Amino acid sequence: MSLVFTGICSHAPGITARADLAPPEQRDAFYAAMDGLRRDLAASKPDAVIIVAAEHFANFFMNNMPAYAIGMGANYSGPIEDPDWLKIPLRKQAGAPDLGKRLVSEMLHTVDVAYCEEWQFDHGIIVPLHLLDPDNEMTVIPANINCQGPPLTPLHRAWAFGEAIRRAADAVPERIALIATGGISHWPATPDSGRINEAWDRDFLDRWLANDKDRLLAYTDAETYRDAGQGGFEIRTFIAAAAAAGGKGTLHCCEPIPVFAVSCTAATMEIV
Amino acid sequence: MSLYQLSKLLYVLNRDDGAKAQFQQDPGSFADGFDLTGEERQAILDHDIGLLYVLGVNGQILMHFAALCGIAWADYLQMMRDGVEKYGPVRAGLYAMTTALDEKVAGL
Fold first, then answer.
1. CATH number at residue A116
2. pLDDT tens digit string along A36-90?
3. Is the pLDDT of residue B1 over 70?
4. Which top CATH class is B3-87?
5. A2-9 and A75-78 as β-strands: parallel, antiparallel, unpaired?
6. Is the minimum CB–CB distance between B60 and chain A shorter than 8 Å?
7. How do the domains of chain B map onto residue ranges?
8. Rg value, chain B, Cα
9. Which 3-state string (H, E, C) describes A80-144?
10. Residue A251 near residue A35 (C-beta atoms within 8 A)
11. 69-108 in chain B: CB under 8 A from chain A
């Protein structure tokens, strides 16, 4: 039928793994925002949810690294991390192979996406899913943008990827929701973990909420690395979501929480 | 220096339960499946997080190895800092430490 919902959120493993170590007020504000996102997502009654993530060497490695990938599996498992470490139990999530195939077929007209019939969810997908689909009721189509191992896809191609998602979603009879997950500035899993450039995050979110394409695509990777760390490369997922939705955004939460390693963010965007 | 092979070992270990079992049973023979330098091999066998970081292993792979070795988050972050102090700056890979050795950013 069409794209019926677009949201973005953080996916840092600390959000669940180290929940007990965060300042309670900030943590609870973020969890409340994610619960709001969960309700809004459910209210859009999606037949399937595309989750665009920036995974971290769970499925994609430097032996064969796609810039873009979409899942066409019948089901998926996760987390790939130790469930006791991540504090998220193992689950098997329903996929949508036929729908995935139709979406990929349409997207290939403009973006060369890899397709995957196997996919193990890492925290990039399972942390949001744990909060947005706690009862494991949703049908998921995972998507990935390589934000980890350079050379990385240029930002304008991430925009084109988002446009392709929108065109493909509008071309199928199903109701499609889109969640893009990532950090803004962060230095994850390094000794610098916990460093957050809040001003940079706020400026990025201003650009995203206004859906200002020119300013969203104006960053060079050198600038992003300098100001926002290697984790900042994950802005690609949020940029794709802006391209797909086309409208203005609403910010529900932006709380910098060092022990979670990111400004914990939840936002939605109007689909126009 | 064979950072790709070292990273590949950790990638395989992180995603494959069979590999985890083999590693835990006979780490040396598991490491022999990869083309490592002596220093890299020893870093794996010693669970030397600091050296692995200095050798250039990406944290997104390394943090799971630390968890597999039973190392808590705060200790994992400190071991990387200690590694830089002991072995010197990150030698290869994509990303070097950007904060000072004694800087406190972890929120812990």
1. 3.40.830.10
2. 999 999 999 999 999 999 989 999 999 999 999 999 999 999 999 999 999 999 9
3. no
4. mainly alpha
5. unpaired
6. yes
7. 3-87
8. 13
9. CCCHHHHCCCCEEEECCHHHHHHHHHHHCCCCCCEEECCCECCHHHHHHHHHHCCCCCCEEEEEE
10. no
11. 73, 77, 80-81, 84, 94-95, 97-99, 105-108
Inter-chain CB pairs, A–B, below 8 Å: 87
Which residues on chain B are in Cβ contact (under 8 Å) with A194? 77, 105-108
pLDDT over threshold 70, residue A1: no
Q: Is B15 on the interface with A (CB under 8 A)?
A: yes
What are the C-alpha distances in Å from A74 to residues A25, A87, A105, A140? 39, 25, 17, 10
A83 touches chain B (CB under 8 A): no
Contacting residues of A for B81, CB less than 8 Å apart? 191
Would the CB atoms of A21 and B4 count as touching at under 8 Å? Answer: no
Structural domain tally of chain A? 1
Residues in chain B within 8 Å Cβ distance of A58: 14-15
Range of the domain at A114: 2-271
